[in-house]
What we know:
Chain A: Its cofactor is Zn(2+). The complex is a heterodimer of chains A (about 450) and B (about 675). By secondary structure, chain A is α/β, with parallel strands linked by helices. Chain A has twelve helices and 18 strands. Chain A has an eight-stranded mixed sheet with strand order 1-2-4-3-5-10-6-9, with helices on both faces. In chain A, strands 11, 14, 17 and 18 form a four-stranded mixed sheet that branches. In chain A, a hairpin with a 2-residue loop joins strand 7 and strand 8 (about 275). Chain A is globular, with a radius of gyration of 21 Å. Among the domains of chain B are: about 1-155, no CATH class; about 155-290, Ribonuclease Inhibitor (Leucine-rich repeat, LRR (right-handed beta-alpha superhelix)), CATH 3.80.10; about 590-655, no CATH class. In chain B, about 10% of the residues lie in helices and about 15% in strands. Chains A and B meet through helix 1 of A and strand 5 and strand 7 of B.
Amino acid sequence: MARGLRPLAGALLLLEVAAAVSFVHHRYEEMVQALFRVQSECPYVSRVYSIGRSVEGRHLYVLEFSDYPGIHEPLEPEFKYVGNMHGNEVLGRELLLQLSEFLCEEYRRGSERVTRLLHDTRIHIMPSMNPDGYEVAAKQGPDSIGYLTGRNNANGVDLNRNFPDLNTFMYYSGEISGPNHHIPLPDNWKSQVEPETLAVIQWIGSYNFVLSANLHGGAVVANYPYDKSQDQRFRSHRRTVNTPTPDDKLFQKLAKTYSYAHGWMHRGWNCGDYFADGITNGASWYSLSKGMQDFNYLYTNCFEITLELSCNKFPPEKDLERQWMANREALVAFIEEIHQGIKGMVSDENNNGIAGAVISVQGISHDVTSGDMGDYFRLLLPGTYTVTASAEGYQPQTVTTTVGPAEPSLVHFQLKQDVVRKPPERKASGTRTNNKTLQKKVVPRATRRGTQR
Amino acid sequence: MHRLEVVGLQQADTLSLVWDRCHRWQQGLGTATGHIQGHCPASLPGHTRGHRPVPCVHSPPVPWAGLFFEALQGHGLLLPISKKGQLRPSRNALSAASTSAPQNIFPSQRGSLLTVGSAAVPVVVVPTMPLTRRVMVYVVLGLGSLLVGGLPPPCPPPCQCYDTSKVFCSEEKMREIPAGLPGNATQLFFVETALSSIGSGALGSSTTLTKLVFLNNHIEELEAGAFWGLPSLAELEISGNPLPAVSPGLLAGLPSLTTFSLSSNAIHSLQPGLFASACHLQDLRLRGNKIDELPPAIFRPLHRLQALDLSQNVLTELPDGLLAPLAALRVLKLSDNMLAWLPPGAFGTLSRLGELHLDGNQLAELPAGVFAGLGALRRLQLQHNALGSLRPDAFAGLSNLTFLSLEGNQLASLPAALFQGTPGLLHLSLARNQLQALPPGVFANLSAAQSLVLSHNALARLPAEAFQGLVGLTTLQLGHNNLSSLPPGLLDGLPSLATLGLEHNRLPRLPAGFFDANEELVRVGLEDNPWACDCRLAYLLGWLQVFADPLLHVQAFCASPATLKGQPLLEVTHRQLACAKDEGQDAVPREDAPGQCTYSNPEGTLHVSCNATSCQRLSLRLPPPPPSQAAGPGTEYRGAWVLRSPCGTLQVSVLVTAQGPEVTTPPGLPATP
Lengths: 453, 673
């Protein structure tokens, strides 16, 4: 275990508190009531909003926690948890409802750790990305025999195989000098995705998310990008091959943070599978195309991992409390991981923020961009880095900085306008399009029964 | 004139249709179909018109449905059916019925709406029951007869209907209850709409509706009678609205109501009689309003209430006898009010109460015997009050208590007998008080306790026997105190201890052998102490390197000597732990328990604790196995060492045989540190 891993000393601060949400499965109506109840119990630090609707018209609700709900504060990073993307993988949904209640109660109780977290972070929690599928699964009930019942959305589509395939574009262009970040979407992407996927893509385009996790079930492991293996031959034969991102070490640390704070994930042996340290590269487990995790990394600034949380996708209610106790610390500790690396403002000579400026770290070929206010966040492991900020119409600026194990280092950039005056172009991260039509590839959907993320 | 005739209905179905229709007729809201032979019964038991609440009957409720049915039969009624079987009569039935609105979604079936004969008379007959029980309804019209069976009910365009009975309306521009809600709805939700008032009869009437929920609307007014005609309604929630008050007759006509929430509105006071007819209520939530006062008799009818939530209001006192009628109460939440005192007998009759939340008030003292009679109490939350002292018998009689929080009060001392009467306590928090010392034996009775939190106090020293008796303790938090030393043997009586918080004290070192009795210990909070990294730290360092999870322990740093200042404890090697010669010779045996010596090798991977007669504890850190060799059964590891300690030297040889993967890599012990 690397010494550089951020300490979990905060574990000691979490005390036993009342479990206000009872440990039951929440149907859609009850979930909505629970979300609004938390919001009304913590009105000054929370907000409920909907990012759109499912095929059957159910809202995709998000509960936000922040000291200024609804407002992005410069230099305060945005975090998200997404649960229940597969309707029959329900533990994440219940854990996120418990987490919401827990954050609210701890904040009201004056817990230092949670208060600091809410003041320094804007946390978005979506308990269910597939509320229609959930209802199908819930009608069948826990420990169901129909293993895949309710997995897909109401149109029968697996939402974690429904995002635009940016890996293919990247793998082909990457061999030369193409980008592996902020890859443009195909022109016709909107017509090719489901309503839930469309809503999520627009959501992650309109917030500058920095870190997130997608909660699944059917195994117990923290899975990090890439999900899609690069070698086409292996993919077609369902061979697995480790396909790391340029941020591989960082992703491993993020995944380990969860697995080691989890009650038993780090032990490796779970549900008949073994994963060292309780983590795995997605493609080295099995290759998955058009998933949400890779899409986050290749299209946005967000670093997402996929958490498989229980062997039983629909555990009985009597297991929920034990599962919550095993995941509580991990869910909080993973959010805290957002506070590392470097962050800062990119501004012009008049101190106006520059949106869409590109932050490049030498030696890691994956750039991030600044948000609407000119603030950027780059997660990095401790070390010394050479960082360049560039924006169209400005002269690039390069600095060298050292990142410690705890708080992120502040690195601000003030860019001078180019000698050849060009009007600075504002890049809006959600509206990028490209004329190139990407190759579409048909990839076999099912791989291993029982361990599909 | 159309005459409608129903054949083949089961009793209950007939009843709901008839009742629905009749009532509407009486309210003068009848629609075009209307020619009724016979008439409605003058009044229905459990349902009255007019604002006067019905007093509760303590005998079982009159089976009005059955009575009504008999009355019907007596009248030989030819049954009229509303043209749509809807909850609410529609004034624009034509458009509602013939529009195939795109946002109007039926999840399971997309049945076409039925229009009959001339376009001017749209008729949709909807069975008011689940589709699995099909009703055959003959509709006799002037234009002809028609057989209709099993059509999905219509859903008003701004809403979504699920499972043919759950209706969800969340259109933010919706200002009125929409027309055309399906008559067989069992759940009806209005979420974040622009509804600003619910008029009398706005929801029509329904015998099937069991749950009605308004979340975060703009409701400022509920007319008396807004919920009349919902005899099956079991759950009513109206929360997150600017609603300033409710009329005392609001719950009249809801004989089945068991759950009622008015949370997060702007209600200042409740009027006497509000619950007069709500005698079946089990769960009442009034959290998050501005209630500053309650009528003393308001809860008198609520004999069956199990949960009462009055948190986040501005109550300054509880009237005498307020809670006395609530004999069935299990959970009482009074958190975050402004209660400065409690009447001595406030909870005296609540013999079934399991949870009492009094946190976040301004209680400066607890009257004698205020918790007497609460024999069933399991959880008592008193955190964040202004309690300056406690009577020795404050918790006497709470023999079932498992959770007690006194966090965030102003306690400077504790009576020695405080926990004598609570032997079942599992979790006790005394954090964030002003405790300077602990009376001897104060926890001696708490053999079941799992967690004890004493952080954020002013504790300067602890007697060696402070935690004797806590044999079940797994978590002990002593962080953020003024501890500058800990006595040897402090933790000897805690065999189950797994987590110990010592962070943010003034500890330069720990006694040798300090954790020897704590075989389960995996987490120790050490940060923010002035650790003196000299030879006297050898025991702690050895323990950390062998047993501790490095993930959890990297934030502790040496404060001295100057050469090691700022170095993480985990990165210090045993060779670096030096002492001035005479200092080391003197100091170390003193730090060990009397007669005890800890032997170790220079690398710090092996430790043995011995006293004059025997050696008790051997700890050994295995080197990582070679990469080629899987750590399978049969793996051997052997070695021999000469260990040193201030008491002398010791020769040790060790043979370890692995039996399985779990033996060589136990959880929490990293294979490659």
